[in-house]
Amino acid sequence: MTTPAWADTARRVLHATALCLGVASTAHAAGWQAAGSFTGARYQHTATQLADGRVLLAGGRGGGVLASTQLYDTATGRWTSGPALPGPRAGHTATPLLDGTVLIAGGEGGTGASVREAATFDPQAGAVSATAGTMALRRRQHTATLLPDGRVLVAGGRGTAGQDGLQSAEIYDPATRTWDSTGSMPGMGARQHTATLLADGRVLVAGGIDNGDSVTNTAALWSPATGTWTAAAPLPARRVNHTATLLPDGRVFVAGGNDGGGALGDTLLYDPSANTWTASGALQVARTQHSAALLPDGRVLLAGGADDAGGTPMAAVEIFSPAAGLSSVYAPMAQARGQHSALLLHTGEVLVAGGEGAGGGALANVELLQLNTLAARHTASLAAARQLHTASRVSSNGEVLIAGGTVGNSSTVSNTALRYSPSTAQWSSTTAMHDARVEHTQTLLPNDRFVLVAGGYNGSVALDSAEIYDANTASWTRTSPLLRPRAAHAATVLPSGDVLIAGGTGYGAASSAEVYRAATLQWQATGDMIQPRDRHHAATRLPDGRVLVTGGRNAGSIHSSAELYTPATGTWAPASAMTHMRAGHAATLLPDGRVLVAGGSGSTAASGTSAEIFDPATNTWQATGNLLTGRVYHRAAALPNGRVLVTGGSSTTAPFGPVASAELYDPATGTWQAVDAMPQARTDHTATLLANGEVLITGGINAGGPIATALLYGNPSAVADARRPRITSYPGRMSRSDTPELSGLRMVGAVEASSGGTGQSATQVPLVRLQGEDGGAVVWLPIARIRPNGGSETVVVTGLLPASMAPGLYRATVFVNGLASDSVPIEVMPAGAPNAPTDVTATPGNAQVTVRWQAPVGGTAPTSYTVTAQPGGASCTVQHPATTCTVTGLTNGVTYTFTVTANNTGGSASAPPTGGVAPAPGPVVDPGGAQAIPTLSEWGVLLLAALMLLAGLRARRFVVV
Fold it and tell me: Engineering a disulfide at 132: which of 44, 177, 691, 805 sits with its beta carbon 3.0 to 4.6 angstroms away?
């Protein structure tokens, strides 16, 4: 072949003087990483993960008792100041409630006395407000336990003079924002004890200091059914400032502490069913005032604290394995610390913040522990080598469709397609496209069922053809052709569900753009780009719905320019230019709405190694860390944790050619880190994010020729699917006036507090996140209520979708105790848009077909319906509430499909196309029981024609532009 596409590919591969096997890099290093620092060094503070994924640090001690708060954004790694508490607090509790707010109760005030006041922090409002009432008693060094019904049990603590260990307990009801008393603990009370929510809903309180100011070994159980306490088996020995962690098997792991004479090095296991304590493996180091965090794989991370040598804080870390009953040494923290917080994040990482340092002063630095490596492993290979193909996730089960490209070692363009099933890790053939194509685009439409494939080369010329793949029927249907033949263009789904095509190679294509209207299945011209771009440019949809187009080539020249497309006006406006010229680069939307642009070819080698970030709010570019390997024609995938994985491509420095290396960008630090290299160098491959968070790498080419192998990049761990949350039922389509309901298994965590109190809480409340299909646009949903759904299933009802949320296809993920569910697709409709019609049927007639449907359920009521036939685009429109329409002017014997679209001023929604129906001459029995149409006179025919013309004009009014 001699097309520009093949000449370009030949330059990429044959330019190599030797096969670049990639640098044998270390996998994404597991271990401790610096995570910045916050304002106001502190210890005896609280750390709480919020419903929006951020972390709240509140109060503490540092040069006095503090009232300040700090907020950590897990997506960007930035610390910002939060609202002040009503007063200074240390030794208080901070409990995440079901509605996403945080209850901050008690503590030591600025005068050194315990306080009874409580307040709630609202992350959405960014404000702290006092509860309607106060606790009955002043208390600090107490525990606060979130109960399954959403109330909070506060127990024990230190009160006023003569109240060194309180027996009292009280209940906070978020529904009324009021406090009420409950039964008192047996014995002489406790402070600095642990409180652990058991799997059966009871709460275990163990150890602490009693009202005689003595370390105690007492334990008690509180029953939510009766509101009373009963004595539990006492601890084998006295202890205080220990940790207590609920294990996945329902037992409680108690570690370390102080018996009044020094730090302890033993551990215990409590069995609630037998009410017994048994000794477990010894710690590597005796410790007290340390932290304990239950890791996603069921092990327990013990970090820092003070040892026997005079109570000096240490950096030592160890991990306890309940299965083996043994504790093993792990890499120490960079900073010795005690009385710090160690919070398990939704990402499965552990955030350690603040504490008291070895010199006795408060700390402000933060460390982040990542236990797993990002590693590549083989999955089933393609049936044959393939390159320059396309890939996208399709259907709710998370399968991946790849289509076109060249197959085998020949340069013959293919029309074949394959589907990959993550559940079986196998490939299967699916129906071939109507046209063979390469350098085309493949776009998943917002209903998560249909894929639009457009343009490309067929081996000799650019194509104007387009077709739609139905994931449910595994079939392709031709749709209306592009207005211009084009290949190597960019395609972007707009908030309306329409698709923007921009630039590419083909007569007049480089500067032109057009939009595929999903409601009418037609292409419509839109404004031309400012800068022609015939290949290797990138297009990224921003959270506000605009599309950013960057770089690319035109007639051999490489550009640094960027421009913005506004769908509402169909016009382009210049954006600030990039620092470097780039073509064949990668552009990735980050969770905070900025765009990362990395690598590419340009006028200098710096284009290949450099990276920069575009901020839509300021229309500015800012340099970020350089890639470890200069590369072009690589692939980038935004991971669920906000990082960006870059794989393969061709080296922009000697030795040139395809590379096997991969690297990971962390927006929190602005740096790149080497990850596990691919077994084979490759470029012109695909990288697709799967529902489980792994990235599927397929095909490509290297100096040895096209590649058939496929890889999965992910974090291997010992976490079984049987422990992960699983979404079993969800709304496939929603408007912003709806409250999502997600049903599933293991949707509520077993761990309320990883250290037995809410000073460092791994809440059992699930976190629900919607993320755009393109990897950006993150929206966290507050929990409205949680209810059982029969058997072991739970229903999680969230609050309303934010009014500012852009329409489009999102993936919903539930996080519980650092474990993520597989994501499921949810289409968010434009404000006021109707839902799609259902139960569409088509009855053939003579040169016409009558289509019937059921009105949509939910959403805003439609004002009209449009029925469109394909091929040809013949249509008819009726006003709601009519549910039948006859499309005329069809050709007998030709098979058509029909799409019914509900319309209103807020938007449109289409039902899936019908199966093929062919009109035919002669009488046709209408199953709906319609009577035969009487013969019309000549005047009647003219009148009917006039009415049809009027209907056609009205139909145009409801086409969304």
Answer: 177
